[in-house]
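B., you asked whether I could sanity-check this one before it goes into the benchmark set. Here's the sequence:
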Amino acid sequence: MTDDDTGPVSAEWSHRTTPHSRPVELWPLDPVVVVGNGPVGQTAALLLARWGVPTIVLDRRAERDLVGSKAICQQRDALDVWESLGAHVASHGVTWTTARTFYRSDELSAMTMTDPGRSPLPPFVNISQSRTEQLLDERMADSPLIDVRWGQGVDSVTQDGGGVTVSGPGFTLHTPYLLVCAGARSDALRALLGVDFGGHSFDDRFLICDIRASLPGWASERRFYFDPAWNPGRQVLIHPCPDSTYRIDWQVPPDYDLDAEVAAGALDERVRAIVGEVSYEIVWKSVYRFHTRCVDRMRVGRVLLAGDAAHLYAPFGARGLNSGVGDAENAAWKIAFVGRDWSGADELLESYHAERHAAARENLSVTSATMDFLVPQSAAAAAHRRDVLERARAEVAARALVDSGRLAEPFWYADSPLTTADPARPFAGRPPRGAAPPPGPGVIVPDLPVVGPGSLRRLCRDGLLVLAAPGADLAVAAGAAAAVAPVPARAADMAALSAELPGLLGARDGEWWVVRPDAHLAAVVTEAEQLGPALCRTLARARIVSRARPARLGDIATASGRPC
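And here's what the prediction gave me:
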């Protein structure tokens, strides 16, 4: 892979290159084709380029549509991925740290987001999807490894043992792997791949207005209203955005007519009920319907589906685009490793489905529970919601039952075939709302500043990482990392990276920690002979024979050694 330009590069990685120059170890295959040039496809192409993998990005549209806020709420871990690519999305958005929930005129809760580590990034940033796409476009334009082709829709997909052939009007391409990121309207592509897109759609509509106004005190918090006087019996969600713009979502009846409301002047009354008599401008407005759907397979041979092409969620909790970025990162490192024969090809690709389909099912469970509370489907459910909201006015315990959307969080791969379980750290399941699970196999590591690369997450994204806790032999970690060459792998002393790191991770004396290229923890072991099998499992291989130079202790270990 190639290093990004967000900080100094260790001299030990002198064989690596700058982000936009050609890697020494060339990609041995044809370019990977990415279908869909929205934010998930953009992220996937940039991540693949960071691994030195060329891509051709196809999009049926003639050009980018830069209208409306669309997916606005970006979570810290998605921001972190973009930051690693040199796309500084966080600095262009509005940071918010508090989520307030109201029932009619009473405030029920104000939840402040926490950070399990010391990330330089905020918990959430609001920024229009179109602006995010512009920032990613700028990074893509700088990369000679990314070839964007507008106006090319895919009408045919066939594959065999040698790769995938995609074609459309006037073109045919052969690719070793196909990544489908074409968004919600990918019905034709899903049909070509033979995947089912089961689920359901909700009858109620939601009206979105992006308004520009001066609303003091509202610029750093998300506000959710149940049954306000100005939208009785339904909900309203308000998000701050850059340039004094606010995104307002009203739940409206199934027969809502936006044009009729505008013509009657009722839309102005709707907005005035929230903003008062201040002057405002409607920047964009739209009506949409929620869907809850997921494909039954996110991997079909050499084809991987990601983002809205694979799953659709109700937006409360901001799990759509944030989950799509997780799909893209998971797919990118696995395609890069499989294409270079660094891993078990079929097994590692299949782990994409195992991990990201599990993440999709978790997101469906969370968002479906939210929608069941927001839009009760029976009289009994409606009565339950009303009872919970009334009790929550005075009872703290009842407030925990109020569901206005569990906010996006990185998924945990505790049950992944790549993860080595640690009996001392059993995964306890979904953590309380607003909390992160403690570090353990399958969980993404918290970020903090470290010596050398600048942050722990950045160090992780160079390849495999073996961390030696206090009392663990660094030479053992270096030898294990060496054994997987030419896979990029490092060995490092936890305490040397940061005196805080062992405590932050909850590491015990004598442990070795194996971290994946997407910063998820793959294993914690206490015996030297367990390290090799744990690394092999992370790569979905039974045995690895390395082909590189002798091992070096310290920051980097990329050398030859015993097979796993």
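One thing to flag: Confidence is low (pLDDT under 50) at residues 1-24, 546-563. Otherwise nothing jumped out at me.
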